[in-house]
Amino acid sequence: MSELDKLKEAINQMRLWLGICVVTNISLIGWFVSNLDRAETFLLIASMAVIVGLAVAILTLNRRIEAAIERLGEL
Predict the structure, then answer these.
(1) Burial of 21 (0-12, 13-18, 19+ CB in 10 A)
(2) Threshold 0.90, pTM exceeds
(3) pLDDT tens digits along 34-55
């Protein structure tokens, strides 16, 4: 397998995980808003921490995808 094909496959895998993270984050935000008045404080704090963690993961994955696309242009 050539370096070009490997890089394309790596980009596709990162895009898959990016999509999973985005959908998970949107769902968790929806749960948070829906249960803001009913959930225990610990669950709300934990969900906020996970929302922030997923947001950081989304930004990191996006930057890695952009860097891989730049490398792809060089090949």
Answers:
(1) buried
(2) no
(3) 999 999 999 999 999 999 999 9
**Whether 44 contacts 52, CB under 8 Å:** no
Token couple for 26: 């949107």
CB 68 within 8 A of CB 10: yes
pLDDT tens for 3-41 read 899 999 999 999 999 999 999 999 999 999 999 999 999
CA dist 29 and 14 (Å) reads: 22
Per the document, the length of the chain is: 75
The pair of structure tokens assigned to 53 is 């963690």
CA 69 to CA 53: how far, in whole Å?
A: 24
Burial (0-12, 13-18, 19+ Cβ within 10 Å), 34: exposed
